[in-house]
């Protein structure tokens, strides 16, 4: 087999065999580090303690588990909304700013990746504690007379997860906005459209693929988040990731924990398939493949 078998006649584009050769190590890594452990875990849910679906029936029979799953979906939705509202202006500023300012904004967006999620979550715990900065500011401006409970609440979890996941919303929207020709906005102004109308009828529809890509990235990531809900949330508002950890670490109930993983995987797969059927992922990421 020669190089001509992997390249097209123009010498610059790979053939299908060449693509498979380059993607082979990646597929092996995915299979070894993700698919095999996941399938092994799911097999435990139906084979132990005896073959059957009793672990999944246990989830359906107890309304507590359904409540935890619905709460997880709700918190993922709550995180996605403020992430979108905060990320869109940042992405627009990155596109419309000069080179120096765009680099600065990009560095600010990517800066959280330089520290671990645990460190960022611990920082929010310091800010939101009873004697923290946030409570101090609320009392200083006269909104509250005494410290209020901010830590170990659903609001604390949503705020901290929004801070952690917002970069995953900014980058797809930035990619979509950057691919919109500047002539479109000028053409809309020549036709008499004001800034608001130009944004609603030109910029927003063309940026929608990036918006949808950011929403699904943030939403799916929030579904399986563990560290932030575990540190900032309360036991009364447990998410499914914390419930799975509890079943594994405290009760050592691996089959039931595997069934919870199966249910979560089912929801993630269903949402991904719906988006992949309705929207093209290359457009959602703001690219033109």
TrEMBL record:
Membrane-related topology note: Multi-pass membrane protein
CDD domains xrefs: TM_PBP2
Chief location category: membrane
Record-annotated ABC transmembrane type-1 domain positions: 69-275
UniProt keyword Transmembrane helix, yes or no: yes
InterPro entries (UniProt xref): MetI-like (IPR000515), MetI-like_sf (IPR035906)
Keyword Transmembrane annotated: yes
Membrane spanning stretches: 20-44, 64-88, 100-127, 156-177, 206-232, 252-275
Keyword entries, A-Z: Cell membrane, Membrane, Transmembrane, Transmembrane helix, Transport
UniProt-listed Pfam families: BPD_transp_1
Annotated Gene3D superfamilies: MetI-like (1.10.3720.10)
Subcellular location: Cell membrane
Entry similarity comment: Belongs to the binding-protein-dependent transport system permease family. CysTW subfamily.
The name this protein goes by in its record: ABC transporter permease
Lineage: Bacteria, Pseudomonadati, Pseudomonadota, Alphaproteobacteria, Rhodobacterales
């Amino acid at each position: 087999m020669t190089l001509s078998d992997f390249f097209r006649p123009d010498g610059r584009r790979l053939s299908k065999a060449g693509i498979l050769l380059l993607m082979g190590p990646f597929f092996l890594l995915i299979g070894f580090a993700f698919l095999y452990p996941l399938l092994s875990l799911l097999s435990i849910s139906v084979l132990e303690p005896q073959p059957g679906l009793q672990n999944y029936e246990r989830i359906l029979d107890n309304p507590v588990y359904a409540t935890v799953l619905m709460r997880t979906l709700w918190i993922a939705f709550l995180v996605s909304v403020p992430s979108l509202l905060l990320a869109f202006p940042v992405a627009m500023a990155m596109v419309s700013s000069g080179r120096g300012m765009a680099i600065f904004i990009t560095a600010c967006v990517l800066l959280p990746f330089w520290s671990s999620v645990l460190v960022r979550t611990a920082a929010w715990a310091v800010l939101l504690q009873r004697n923290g900065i946030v409570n101090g500011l609320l009392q200083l401006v006269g909104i509250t007379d005494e410290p209020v409970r901010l830590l170990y609440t659903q609001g604390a979890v949503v705020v901290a997860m929004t801070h952690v996941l917002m970069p995953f919303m900014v980058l797809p929207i930035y990619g979509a906005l950057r691919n919109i020709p500047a002539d479109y906005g000028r053409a809309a102004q020549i036709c008499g459209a004001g800034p608001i109308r130009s944004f609603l009828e030109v910029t927003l529809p063309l940026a929608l693929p990036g918006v949808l890509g950011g929403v699904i990235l943030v939403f799916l990531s929030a579904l399986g988040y563990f560290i932030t809900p575990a540190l900032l949330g309360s036991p009364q508002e447990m998410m499914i990731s914390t419930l799975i950890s509890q079943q594994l670490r405290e009760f050592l109930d691996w089959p039931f924990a595997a069934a919870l993983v199966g249910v979560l995987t089912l929801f993630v797969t269903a949402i991904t398939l719906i988006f992949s059927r309705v929207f093209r992922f290359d457009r959602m990421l703001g690219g033109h493949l």
